[in-house]
Amino acid sequence: MANAGNFLGGGEDPRISIDAGAPGGPIAPQQRLLHDPAVSFDEYHYYALRTRAEEDSAQHLETGHKTGILQIIFPPKNGPSAVSTTPPNESPGNDEKRQGSVTADTNLTRIDQRLHISNEEWTNASRALRTATWAACFYLITTDILGPFGIGFAIGTLGWGPGIALFTVFGLAAGYGGYLLWISFLGLDSYEFPLRNYGDLAFRIYGSIPRHFVNILQSIQLLCSVGLIVISNGQAISQVSKFRLCYAVCCLIWAICGFGLGQVRTLQRFGWLANVAIWINLMIMFISMGTIAHSPPNYSVAAFGSAGATTVPADVTPDANGVFPPVKHYAGLPNPSSLIGSINGLMQGVYAYSGAQLFIEFMAEMRRPRDFIKAMWGAQCFIYIVYMFYGCFVYGYQGQYTYSLAYLGVSPYGWQTVGNMLAVLSGIIAAALYGNIGIKVLYNNVLMDLFNAPPLTTKKGKILWATIVPIYWSIAYIVAAAIPDFFGLVSVVAAFCAVQFTYSFPPILALGYIIHKGAMRPDENFDPATGQVTHFDSGLRRWARGFMKGPWYFSVLNVIHIGAALATAGLGAYAAIMGMIAAFKDPQVNAFSCHSPLDSS
């Protein structure tokens, strides 16, 4: 396979072509298959460098524009940070001429409709799809309803020291993973060969099988994430109704809401929604902190989903007179013999940084992908500072009674209602974002690849999208609702999916990218005039050179990172599976029942 580059094979590299002037000529990018194994890493990298140069050139033409604080807080749909869809050396007045045969109804996935498209028309069509700014991406990254409200619970299951230390380490590792995805994306994405999703990046570095594996795993996580938010919103509504409304109906309401909100197709449009979601989350934090500081914990839900119930059940069990134990804190692990409970709590904390699964999709729709690093580090710092403060505050006041969703652990009914209603609004926005990416992964890799479905920019594509959205949300609801242990499901998704996309896959992909790039000698090149790639060696010798030229300490760091991430994922998977086994032995309420799991009566 050309783009996999025979990483482990010692035979001749199929890309070797000493005769750069071989007959046949190049094949234009628009005449390639969507995921063509014949396209080499060198070709992807050549066009990526050319695209980055064009973006840099456009940036120099915009040096007089400044991004003000209001543009960051309220990102505009169009602004000076945009990369023009007109190449730098061409007049904007030629747009109509350049578009040529590329119309709204052109199905770019079909070879027969792309044969008559010129190179300029092809690249301009790719430029037109990139509309998101870095400020919008900042809000998209931080839109995560499960993140802030599970940190107190994670600290409660780990204790002060381990909880804060691990959350800090995971934050730094998540930021490093985002950086690795960024450098890999910049080196392989171009207008000629645009990267669309996480699986595309895996394909260009390792080949088709890793691409399918990543796409399947990402689809599972996004589907479960949508379902989890539907269920958590259902729990909130059931609590607001004082459990008088059927629990199954409470959850179903939000699945139906997703039918409408899921019709938003572009991430730029999600920028405003994500902006709103963050401010809502901050309001919930401030309201819940004020309430928690002046009221006792919500003892009625202590036996279900609290930190104490997970690690030391005796800490949340009332005595013969119905009096609950006082609030208790632990400096270290609350129960060293209950490692499974602590690890499951840690997986809740991991969810705060699980947005890396969407980073490639965000960069794919950015006008200037180089700016993504600002959005990513800004979001990671925001998440760490705000979430850590909130988690420590909640655990400091509620101790072992800290609930897995902090706003549900507030005892006064009035403030419960305020927090719940705000949380469901923020949650449905996050679910719509996950659903948007999830459907795009399904659409681009199944419907377009296998069934030649029309692009989403066409009228037929829009109709097909509108049809798929309710089906997707219905499946997400059914999958999540059928599992009786909400907390356990979060742990399973975090261990099998979130840890991989945030911590395991980035160094694995970056290591392959570094080796490919480092193995390229100065006298080797891709010639766009002939379409030929010139290599002078292959096999282990070539990959060893790439590893050492990484530089070697960067490559070694990634190998260590991979080992640590896989070990964490394995530990989390074991704890999650054991927890789910225990949950199914002791039947709990699922979302097909009218009885709410929060109702202890």
UniProtKB/TrEMBL annotation:
Matching InterPro entries, A to Z? AA_transpt_TM
Q: Which UniProt keywords apply?
A: Membrane, Transmembrane, Transmembrane helix, Transport
TM stretches of this protein: 136-158, 164-188, 245-264, 270-289, 375-398, 418-443, 463-483, 489-515, 552-577
Residue limits of the Amino acid transporter transmembrane domain?
131-511
Pfam families (alphabetical): Aa_trans
**What GO CC terms are in its UniProt record?**
membrane
Q: Where in the cell is it found?
A: Membrane
Annotated region Disordered: the residues are: 1-32, 77-104
Q: What is its main location?
A: membrane
Q: Is Transmembrane tagged as a keyword? A: yes
According to the UniProt entry, which residue ranges have a biased composition of type Polar residues? 81-92
Protein name as catalogued = Oligopeptide transporter protein
Source species, please?
A: Lepidopterella palustris CBS 459.81
